[in-house]
From TrEMBL:
CDD domains: ABC1_ADCK3-like. The chain crosses the membrane at residues 506-525, 531-552. The keyword GTP-binding does not apply. This is AarF/ABC1/UbiB kinase family protein. GO terms for molecular function: kinase activity. Residues 101-346 form the ABC1 atypical kinase-like domain. Keywords: Kinase, Membrane, Transferase, Transmembrane, Transmembrane helix.
Length: 561
């Protein structure tokens, strides 16, 4: 029997856990790991030390031991290990490589437990809910397993059932992990320059989200909506009547896994096109939707009979908020201009770097990277090489990339790997280029937006003297067109500015008319011409209404651009 498959080896694999026992198991892992690291460092510091090859072999052996121990510790640690497999900014590369191989090698749970969970969650027995239910799971992982079934309406579905007792196990394990995070934070050596508590909190948030199947269902719905205009992306429909936080019923959408290159070929599918689709789907998620699949291992993407991409598993999604996108914009501008200071500042604003007293080494590292890695054309770069460069710089620096960033990097590297497997000539950067250009254009729009705000401020200032406006507007346009902002001004922007100018002039005329009619109404009222005064008042009110509409329109267009 393969290691890790006997129930004896899985002390966590029961519904009633002993928290004391977990405490001992987990802390003995941590202390053994610390001892191994200490011994390793000690050997390395001897005069003459150990050879480079021996050092690498030891690190590898340690990494394999960590991976196997995490497997033995069960679902929480398998997931934490998988999360850490994206953190080359925190751990040595050998560890990260080994953690990336952390597969969910855990035994499936019994059909009786499946029956019990479904009845508890959906309030009915399996035969009352499903016409047919396959007792043998289609797939089993650390958090749950997937069974094929047929509804009474005849629709083929899959039912995702969560491993029993998972919530309790998470509660115990995460409580112990909190203590470990605190210990590391206060450790004179390990705590330096690392935000262990922050990393722990990030892990907690992701893990709790991942075991809420209602959240996964909502994510699937959002993801499907976001791809409404792209019929080459398929997302299984959620059957909400058969869903709860621990059971999720989805439309059965079978496909060939994106990494089964020969099977795809045999099915007559265009491998080159699939590689492009994979990259495009991710670029759309990141740049257009700001909502992306954060766990894109090849098992979660399949290809349908028509060559459509099918996405599974929406438990772990990343979001890029618009302010983060703005921060990324600044980073990108900084990279494009090779301006190390701007890049560092934007990374501080993004929370990617914790500012320290002496930022000199960080600035120098970033500048070095910009000067060297920007020499090659963008499309000749490989994502894996770029992320390796970034991580190399980040490792042992006061950097802490946000989880979103590391997820994006992992998604890109995974897709690049799969893309190259599908089509040896595939180049992720080549596919990304037009999207990056689009992003840059949007960025220019945003930078010009602040310029527009400046412009409207000037316009308001001069509105009292109405005559100054055209001259100042012309100056500003001239400035924009000369490229003083170091950006490309498109005729669209110019058009928008002119439209804005005419709107401002109309607004000023409206304001003058309102004042005129209000003054007339007051004079008429004082002179007892009541009906005429009411008439003038109504005209003033009507123009005021038009003015408000105009102001709202201006504000809307400000928000849009
Ligand atoms: N709607 C579906 N139609 C057909 N097959 C599906 C569907 N959903 C899931 N599967 C199959 O089940 C497998 C596991 O599904 P999913 O990834 O959602 O489960 P999981 O428990 O979150 O697994 P993991 O933790 O490994 O990501 C998928 O790789 C796919 O083969």
């Amino acid at each position: 029997m393969e290691k890790g498959y006997s129930d004896k080896a899985y002390r966590w694999n029961r519904e009633n856990y002993s928290s004391r026992r977990r405490f001992v198991d987990i802390w003995s892992f941590v202390l053994t790991l610390m001892f191994k690291l200490w011994r390793y460092n000690k050997a390395w510091s001897y005069p003459g030390g150990i050879t480079e090859a021996k050092q690498a072999a030891r690190r590898k052996a340690q990494a394999i031991w960590i991976r196997n121990t995490l497997l033995d510790l069960g679902p929480t640690f398998i997931k934490v290990g998988q999360l850490f497999s994206t953190r080359a900014d925190i751990f040595p590369v050998e560890y990260v490589e080994e953690l990336a191989k952390l597969q969910d090698r855990v035994p499936a749970f019994s059909y009786e437990q499946v029956e019990k969970t479904i009845e508890q969650e959906l309030g009915k027995k399996i035969p009352e809910l499903f016409q047919n239910f396959d007792p043998i799971p289609l797939a089993a992982a650390s958090l749950g397993q997937v069974h094929k079934a047929v509804l009474y309406s005849g629709e083929a579905v899959v039912v995702k059932v969560q491993r029993p007792g998972l919530k309790k196990l998470f509660e115990i394990d995460l409580q112990i992990l909190k203590g470990i995070a605190r210990y590391f934070q206060n450790h004179p050596k390990w705590g330096k320059g690392r935000d262990w508590i922050g990393i722990y909190e990030e892990c907690c948030r992701i893990l709790w989200e991942e075991i809420d199947y209602l959240n996964e269902g909502r994510n699937a719905d959002t993801f499907r909506r976001n791809f409404r205009g792209h019929d080459w992306v398929k997302v299984p429909r959620v059957y909400w009547r058969y869903a709860s936080s621990r059971v999720l019923t989805l439309e059965y959408v079978p496909g060939i896994k994106i990494s089964q290159y020969e099977a795809l070929e045999a099915a007559g599918l265009d491998r080159k096109l699939i590689a492009r689709y994979g990259a495009q789907a991710y670029l759309i998620q990141l740049l257009n939707n700001g909502f992306f699949h954060a766990d894109p291992h090849p098992g979660n993407i399949a290809v349908g009979p028509n060559g459509d991409l099918i996405f599974y598993d929406f438990g772990m999604m990343g979001r890029i908020k618009s302010n983060v996108r703005e921060g990324l914009m600044q980073t990108l501008f900084g990279i494009a201009q090779k301006d190390g200071d701007r890049v560092v500042q934007s990374l501080i604003d993004l929370g990617a770097i914790a500012p320290v007293d002496d930022m000199g080494p960080v600035r120098r590292s970033v500048q070095y990277m910009l000067d060297n890695f920007m020499d090659k054309p963008f499309e000749n770069q490989s994502v894996a090489a770029i992320s390796d460069d970034l991580y190399e710089i980040a490792y042992n620096q006061p950097f802490r990339f946000p989880a979103t960033f590391t997820f994006v990097m992992r998604a890109f590297s995974t897709l690049e790997g799969v893309g190259k497997g599908l089509d040896p000539e595939f180049n992720f950067m080549e596919v990304a280029k037009p999207y990056a250009m689009q992003l840059m254009t949007n960025m220019n729009g945003a930078e010009s937006n602040s310029f527009l705000n400046e412009l409207s401020r000037q316009a308001v200032q001069v509105s009292t003297t109405a005559f100054g406006l055209p001259r100042r507007l012309e100056d500003t346009l001239e400035k924009l067109e000369r490229g003083d902002m170091r950006m490309r001004v498109r005729s669209l922007e110019t058009e928008r500015l002119l439209r804005r100018q005419s709107n401002i002039q109309i607004g000023i005329s409206y304001a003058l008319l309102i004042s005129g009619f209000t003054l007339s109404a007051t004079i008429l009222l004082v002179n007892k011409f009541v009906w005429l005064a009411v008439f003038a008042g109504l005209i003033a009110a009507a123009i005021a209404f038009l003015l408000i509409r105009l102001l709202l329109r201006l504000e809307r267009s400000d928000r849009m651009y």
